[in-house]
Design the sequence.
């Protein structure tokens, strides 16, 4: 079940086919093919998470702020002012890195703090839950290895690779948040 990718190799992956507004250019954005909403963190729009392990056009890396594989941006099929969502297409894309995930701000600005706190409350509700088969207990996404831990690329639930259960992770502790 473990997906094994090699940097520099090409793979068929699900991509969001989008057309940018107003120029009408078509782009393919690698995604995790699981349409969902995150009402628990005040994000009610259905969306796909970007899979930043795979190559995308530099213009799209800039639009989605995904230069290092991590981004807070998502693909929202039904409500974007910068692009029209056309379809999900299997597209051959080059692997650029082995890690990806949701970018949570290290130093959130004041308006971000309530959402980060909601995220932390949600995260804490998963601490201790099992990750059978290295699958995230949230949506069953295959967890990636990073820094000796297993990390869900969609919402950053982090697990101990031996116990296969979600653990607390200091990066997402709002007790240490400072306003910038």
Sequence:
């Amino acid at each position: 079940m473990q997906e094994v990718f090699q940097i520099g190799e090409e793979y068929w992956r699900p991509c969001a086919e989008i057309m940018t507004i107003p120029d009408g250019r078509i782009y393919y954005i690698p995604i995790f093919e699981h349409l969902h909403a995150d009402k628990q963190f005040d994000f009610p729009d259905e969306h796909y998470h970007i899979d930043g392990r795979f190559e995308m056009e530099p213009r799209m890396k800039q639009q989605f702020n995904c230069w290092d594989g991590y981004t807070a941006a998502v693909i929202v099929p039904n409500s974007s002012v910068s692009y029209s969502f056309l379809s999900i297409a299997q597209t051959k894309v080059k692997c650029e890195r082995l890690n990806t995930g949701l970018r949570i701000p290290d130093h959130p600005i004041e308006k971000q703090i309530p959402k980060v706190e909601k995220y932390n409350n949600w995260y804490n509700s998963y601490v201790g839950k099992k990750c059978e088969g290295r699958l995230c207990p949230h949506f069953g996404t295959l967890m990636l290895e990073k820094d000796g831990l297993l990390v869900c690329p969609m919402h950053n639930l982090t697990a101990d690779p031996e116990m296969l259960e979600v653990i607390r992770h200091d990066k997402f502790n709002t007790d240490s948040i400072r306003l910038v």
